[in-house]
Amino acid sequence: MGSQDRLPCKDAPPESPPGPGAQAILRVAEALVAEKGFDAVSVNDIAREASVSKANVFHHFKSKEGLYLEVLRHACRHSARALDAALAESSADPHVRLQQFFFHHLRALLEHAQSSRLLQRALLEGASQRGRELAEEVFAHHFSRLVELVRAGQSSGCLRRDFDPALLAFLLVGASAFFFETRAVLRHLPEVTFAERPERYGSAVFDLLARGFARAPGEVGR
User: Fold this and answer.
1) What is the C-alpha separation between 7 and 136, in angstroms, rounded?
2) Cα distances (angstroms) measured from residue 48 to each of 28, 40, 44, 55
3) Hey, how many other C-beta atoms are within 10 angstroms of the C-beta on 110?
4) The whole model's pTM is what?
């Protein structure tokens, strides 16, 4: 990817949370959009469920699209906390910090299913029309922080330097997201023994990513 194609790394979102009125609207909008999708939910629907006027919704949010982006940012807060926990990890070992992110992120997806479904809908239904906007306005900041965590491990010599740090970041996020998305099917597959044990899944996947699956030359298999 050339430098002209890179997404800008946006500054962190404002730390101040929305006021109580805006938070109530966000909670209702998150639930409705997670269930029905962005296009199927109107501002009137949100106002009615939140017991406020349509004008009150627009008092807090300039447009339906602006409300939607704020809902997605709000839904990302659980994953952001997973990244915060990894960055706050006292160990200086990037391997340990990445492992902590992966475990916390997987747990956050499973414990906050409504937010997770909302983000899935955004990626699956809206990416073709709003892909760049979603990337820049919702996901870029947190993804860039994760990439920097990988890159720091490469710079310190703890991780190999011959791979794209964004690819590892994508694989870590994707492995958690796909487990959440397919768990209802996984539990019925005859060869799958980890669907009801996400901690086992997380440990096995991270170990596989960290060590690779090809046997080293001269290694004797068990």
Assistant:
1) 7
2) 10, 15, 6, 12
3) 14
4) 0.80
Q: Helix axis angle, 77-87 relative to 64-75, nearest 10°?
A: 40
Asked if residue 23 lies in contact with residue 149, where contact means CB atoms within 8 angstroms, the answer is no
Tens-digit pLDDT profile for residues 21-51: 898 999 999 999 988 888 899 999 999 999 9
- Among 27, 105, 22, which Cα is nearest to 62's? 22
Class of domain 76-213: mainly alpha
Q: Which residues contact 101 (CB under 8 A, 6 or more apart)?
A: 82, 83, 85, 86, 146, 149, 172
Fold (CATH) for 18-62 = Arc Repressor Mutant, subunit A (1.10.10)
Could you tell me the residue ranges of all domains in the chain?
Answer: 18-62, 76-213
Residue-wise pLDDT for 166-177, tens only, equals: 999 999 999 999
φ/ψ of 12, rounded to 5, equals -60, 145
| Burial class of residue 169, CB neighbours in 10 A (0-12, 13-18, 19+) | buried
The angle at the Cα of 115, spanning 46 to 110, to the nearest 5 degrees, equals: 150
Terminal C-alpha separation, the chain: 41
For residue 41, give the nearest of 20, 21, 18, 68 by alpha carbon.
68
DSSP assignment letter at 187: T
> What distance lies between CA 27 and its chain's CA centroid?
18
Q: Residue 163: which pLDDT band, with cuts at 50, 70 and 90? A: very high
